[in-house]
Amino acid sequence: MNDPPTGRGATPSESAANSASGSAICVACRESIQPGATVCRHCGSPQRLARWTPVGAVLKWVGGIVTVISLVLGVRTLLEHYDRWQEERAAIDELVSASEWLSQAGNQRQAWTLLERANELSPSSLRVRSAQATLAMTWLRDFRAHREEAAGILDSLTEVLYRQLSDADADKTATVLGHAGRAEVLRLDFGIAAQIDPDELIDQALEANPKNGYANTFKAHWLLVRRPIEPQSVEAARPYFDVALESDVDRTWVRSMQMQRLGFLSERGSDETQIAATRAFLLAARDMMEADEPLPHRRARADVLESYGFMGRGDQVEALLDVLPPDEYLRVLDWLRDGLELSASQERQQEYLDARLAEVAGRKDEALEIIRGLMAAEGTSDRLQPRLDQDVLRMTGALPPRALARKYKSDPVDESDPFGFHLETLQHFDPKWLPENRQQALEFFSDAAEQRHERLPELLAALPAILDRVMEIRRAGDERAKFKAFTTGYSAWHYQTVRDTLAELIYLRAAALRASDDIDAAIAVAGDLEAFVADLDDHFDPFRAGASWQLAIAHAQRAARDDSAADREAAIVRLEEAISRRLIDFEIASWQDIKSDLFAGVANEPAYLELVRGR
């Protein structure tokens, strides 16, 4: 019995059998059909393949191949994009890490440059934006830049900061706005107009979070910067610093902002502001010492130690004695002095402060020992010495012997013998300084010469030795100037003062000789003055005019005495020279003096008459 059709293609044996029996098999349903039939009578399927069937099969294969190729190419493209993304991400990681390292090393400028490159690689990177904001705030907390580039840098920093406000919480808002306010304060420091009022930004920061450490620090610092700076400013800043010190912000940084600004103000502004700033600094220093915090910056400490009196004068010592209990005060001072190199005058001033604190603490013997040492010490300020005398008087009931002796500085004039008093001043005062007694003596003897004082011979007899003493000190200054070896004991200012004094004494001698009718000597000495100041700077213009004036008068007087045409001519030449050298402007003489009897010897000379015409 034959098996039913299975629907599969005829095998070779079946095809042979069907051919032999005279029948055919349908290519589709496998039923027997007539040989040569083109359509199956059972299923209606054509018995020959369509001419496009092979083409379709080929296209199906091609489509599959194309699909596979497209898939391969797509995967490859995705892999390339992934690799590129990975490379950019690695580059950004490297740039951000490098910028963080540079920022920690204090090179904010280069760190910012690296973050700008990272931003170019990925403008939408949240990590880069966050790193830029962090760096901007770090840089603003310790900002350094050249004046000409400060505006551009601050613009870039604030732009980054304001972008952080879109999704910021209250504390972050306070931090960002506080730093933005700091940027505006920096603009003002650099002489750049603020874009927004610092008060507005910092107050908004405090409204967002009143406890934010950065906002409180910047508020306190701004109060110590904003003009006018008064004692009330110092007190107003204190509670803001206190809040900042209790926050989670770096305490060392808060202290640096506080102490550097207070140190700066301790030497600037009104006396009251200086005292208030020094008080605040000392109280904060006490707290820092007790908390074992690092010492304030050296510059701030040096400023405060100098604030007790410029050049060691001790002016503010009394006003600051009650800041702390004496022994605690001394411990704080010792802590602040650690590692500082003080000048001789500053050291003497600090010793004086120690003495006064010892006295306040009841240790008078210790205080007296320090004070007596200061009286004899080199480097003790002349302005401090009278205070030392009064301290001895207060503690012993009597002034020290040296306080009763002449100092040739500001001693009261002996009205019973002013001539002798002023002559003694000229013989002993220090020509490197301009004490009150020196000026009194020069003015007294100038009037004495003009009025032909009866004791002028005493002055003329003493002047050569006085001039020799001053000239010796001047020659020492010449050597220092030659080798640029000035010191605090003999500075460039001292050198100029010595030369001023020498010129005034020579002028005084010429006037005194002329008043004593020693005309030939007066002309010679006035010539010496002219030669001395000839090559000096413009500061000595009044002495050049004064030399010409003395020579004009002396020649006019000798012309009257000797009827000398040469002296008459010389007198007029010198007078014209004195006038051209601004004699009148310097108030050495007036037109009334020029028209006086001083010039009687040339009164009829046409050149003289033309000179005084209309005056």
Name its key features:
615 residues; mainly alpha; two-stranded antiparallel ribbon
Characterization of the model:
The chain has 26 helices and 2 strands. The chain is an all-alpha fold and 615 residues long. The longest helix has 52 residues, at 53-104.
Rg of Cα set:
50 Å
Please provide the count of β strands: 2
Mean pLDDT: 89
User: What is the tally of helical segments?
Assistant: 26
Give the neighbour order of strands across the main sheet.
1-2
Short description, anyone?
This protein has 26 helices and two strands.
List the helices and strands and how they pair.
Elements: H1 12-21, E1 24-25, E2 32-33, H2 53-104, H3 108-121, H4 126-141, H5 147-163, H6 170-189, H7 198-208, H8 213-223, H9 231-245, H10 251-265, H11 271-290, H12 298-306, H13 326-337, H14 344-360, H15 364-376, H16 385-396, H17 401-404, H18 418-428, H19 436-450, H20 456-483, H21 492-515, H22 519-533, H23 541-562, H24 565-580, H25 591-594, H26 606-612
Antiparallel strand pairs: 1-2
